[in-house]
Specification:
single chain; alpha/beta; six-stranded parallel β-sheet; globular; two-stranded antiparallel sheet
């Protein structure tokens, strides 16, 4: 494996704990009247179908903030919630800006930053990712978003866009993610890949696939482990 010049990160699930963060926010907002686990999973389950509406051309280009709000507006009546003001609903929708990092994320990213250019490569929009970084003290060198490329992952232009942004070859970029489909799409574009285990991404009941895949350059327990494997 060649040493990468740029290490790009998927964010939701890989760097931050969306499930735990949304469960806490739901419990606080709904005061126990809603099953927080089911609410968090249902909100996340609407993510891929909403993006597909954009990718199919049914919707024009849409920021993830706005897709999250569309999903939320469908979820509230499903969970029989009808007492939130617009201000409260907007605050709830922006929980995605306030997701908490996994315990290893800040230390691991800080170590990697000492030797590599580190950036996001997320479908999240720029404001969301910037607010999240400020909230969680995530030390990115650069925030790259689907908003810049106007394409969501796994479109090749997102992965190749990292290389183009930093004026390096695709093989000089390593994508780090906890999702095998994201990594497979990156490999098809010539990027190096590192898998991060996040067994609790979907909570303690649903579980997550953390099995090794032969195509990845690295398989890591967490981001601190990744830093160690890259000699940081």
């Amino acid at each position: 494996m060649e040493t990468p010049k740029v290490v790009a990160f998927d964010v939701f699930g890989t760097v931050v704990d969306w499930y735990g963060s949304i469960c806490k926010e739901a419990a606080k907002t709904f005061k126990g009247e809603v099953d927080a686990d089911k609410f968090a999973l249902a909100w996340r389950a609407g993510y891929a179908p909403a993006m597909q509406r954009v990718m199919s051309g049914e919707l024009g280009w849409t920021l993830i903030d706005d897709l999250h709000r569309m999903i939320l507006d469908e979820l509230l009546p499903r969970f029989r919630i009808d007492n939130l003001t617009e201000k409260q609903t907007d605050h709830l929708n922006k929980i995605w800006h306030r997701l908490e990092p996994w315990p290893d994320s800040v230390e691991g990213l800080t170590r990697l930053k000492s030797s590599f250019m580190i950036c996001t490569l997320s479908n999240g929009n720029i404001a969301l990712l910037a607010n999240m970084a400020k909230h969680g003290k995530l030390p990115w060198d650069c925030i790259l978003s689907a908003e810049i490329f106007r394409k969501y992952k796994p479109d090749p232009s997102t992965y190749l866009g990292v290389a183009s942004t930093f004026r390096v070859e695709p093989e000089d970029v390593m994508l780090v993610a906890s999702h095998h489909n994201d990594l497979e799409a990156a490999r098809q574009c010539g990027l190096q890949t590192a898998f991060i285990e996040r067994p609790m991404e979907f909570g303690p009941i649903q579980g997550n696939d953390i099995s090794p895949r032969s195509g990845n350059d690295l398989h890591c327990l967490d981001i601190v482990d990744l830093a160690g494997q890259l000699d940081c």
